[in-house]
Amino acid sequence: MTHSPAQHAATGSLFDQLGGETAVAAVVDLFYGRVLADEALAGHFTGVDIDRLKRHQRRFIGQALGATRPYSGRSMRHAHRHLGITDADFDRVVAHLAASLAEAGVDEATIGTIAGKLAPLRADIVTR
Questions:
Q1: Cα–Cα distances in Å, from 102 out to 19, 35, 49, 109, 115?
Q2: What is the DSSP letter of 66?
Q3: Which terminus of the chain, N or C, has less C-beta within 10 A?
Q4: pLDDT digits (tens, 9 = 90+) for 39-93
């Protein structure tokens, strides 16, 4: 899954360059392994159907990276408004995603690009 910025410029969407659905699913699995092991975040997932959440996350991240399959879940604001997520929580989640991408072999420049695509969601997700 390792790709250089030059490869990104020369080919299609980030979604395709990273390996499509299979690669995104692997990153999402790594990501939730990290998030659920993080005592500061795990409480947000008590009673949550993690398999269902992973499916939504795969579609959401896929769309953010340019997949053609649309994300049809709730808006980020609606899905997170009752969770009391703080800026620190958001930063921890982003760090876990970056670490998961790195573990999957994604280069730093691409991780930065992905983080940049997700950063605007802070306003919709952070409620405290």
A1: 14, 15, 26, 11, 12
A2: T
A3: C
A4: 999 999 999 999 999 998 998 889 888 888 777 777 777 777 767 789 999 999 9
Query: What is d(CA 107, CA 98) in angstroms, rounded to the nearest whole number?
Result: 10
Per-residue pLDDT band for 1 (boundaries 50, 70, 90) equals low
Q: Is 78 annotated as a binding residue?
A: no
What is the domain extent for residue 35? Answer: 21-125
* Euclidean distance between CA atoms 102 and 124, whole angstroms: 26
Q: Is residue 6 part of a domain?
A: no
User: Structural domain tally of the chain?
Assistant: 1
| Residue 82 known to bind ligand | no
Residue 3 lies in a domain: no
Lowest mean pLDDT among 4-18, 21-35, 53-67: 4-18
Residue 10 lies in a domain: no
Structure token digits, residue 109? 């420049």
Domain of 71, CATH number, reads 1.10.490.10
8 pLDDT band, cuts 50/70/90, is: very low
